[in-house]
Input
Amino acid sequence: MKPWGGRFKGQTDPLLEKFSASIGFDRELYRHDIKGSIAHAGMLEKIGILNAQEKKKIVRGLKEIEKEIDSGRFQFSDALEDIHMHIEARLIEKTGEAGKKLHTGRSRNDQVSLDMRLFLKEGLAGIDEGLKGLLGALLKKAEKEKDVIMPGYTHMQRAQVVPFAHYLLGHYFALRRDRDRLSECLRRLDVLPLGSGALAGSTIPLDRQWVRKKLGFAKVSRNSMDTVADRDFAVDAVYSSAMIMVHLSRFAEDLIIFATEEFSFISLPDELCTGSSLMPHKKNPDSLELIRGKTGRVAADLFGLFMILKGLPYTYNRDLQEDKEPLLHAVRTAKDSLAIMELCVKGMTADKKNMEKAAVESFMPAVEMAEYLTMKGMPFRQAHGVAGTAVRMCEEKGMRLGDMTLAQLKKLSVLFEKDVFDFIRPQSALKMRRSEGSASFKEVSKVIDAEKKYLRS
Ligand code: ARG
Output
């Protein structure tokens, strides 16, 4: 039986009933819905709408319903549209007249916003846990492999030698920013919407501050129309999730490449790969490919939400029901992907020899060669040209920069001395780089120490 039965003569068309039902996905909000209702009932008692007896009955009923849903005994039906109506209808079944009073001063419009905010407080905390776990794994791996060196790439070309740990910490810092983004998002959504009603509040003297305290919100919302129209908090949460996914996807893409036979920089644990149904030799990095693939869908969640909101007239419109699927999907996917990535990082092994080989057999020290000349007074642009010429000469002769003789180098510039050969060894660059945040062993150690403290706090 629908609560608006009084206004309607006919029944809802069965096709519309199915079309408009959100219970298939918003049932995930049941615990939050019940939590909100319990607080609302407490407040209704405080202001005299419910007597103590009725309030007790309602709270008991709601807790029973929670258990029914927990255990899978609860009967769901499209006819009741959404999670709010399911719980209310069941409560009335259980408590009769008392249950009929629960929706006093409340609309599903402020109720659904409350449920989503409560869901996100928990959901984003779960993502944050996942971030923390992955950050810890990255830091540990960086410390363990701190002597391993590799080429750093731009344009997928070997660019400059870096410690593998510096590479790992690069991804670490991106994910660390994601934690800040999440906490900012949490701060902004920490506002109680309940009490805004359908859009204009209520003549019933609702005590919103009481509910706020009960539910642990920092503030109550200040404009009832904005409150039921607002989905910024959902967009913020999906954006934060999408950004995490994009970070994970870029990292995943690297690891996929590093695990190819062509690179052989790392190997992934069997548990996180699958085989081929046809090719016996294959070991495919499915876990990472799926993170990359799911990133597309979470980015689409963000775009989808924007499209729902664009041009939506004030205030609530049923379009807003379509916010649930992208939101729930984005939060769930970010959390799961972080957990999978943590396993990948913990389980992967670095092939020190291959990484080092790639770093040594390259023209990357051309940068250091140019800096060597710069330190001896040559303008950098000119030094760049000299080192570039050296690279071209080596390429023609099939040798590396370190194979050149001092005489050959002196022909390019008289500033070259014997010490240049030490200067352009990959290991030297890693010891000598001095700028803050640079790819040097010293900077990496500093960062690891500082970040251990951060993660402990
Ligand atoms: N299931 C609805 C949603 O998620 C709840 C709010 C319904 N409000 C309304 N005026 N029909 O948006």
Q: What stands out?
A: Residues 451 and 457 are 10 Å apart (CA to CA).
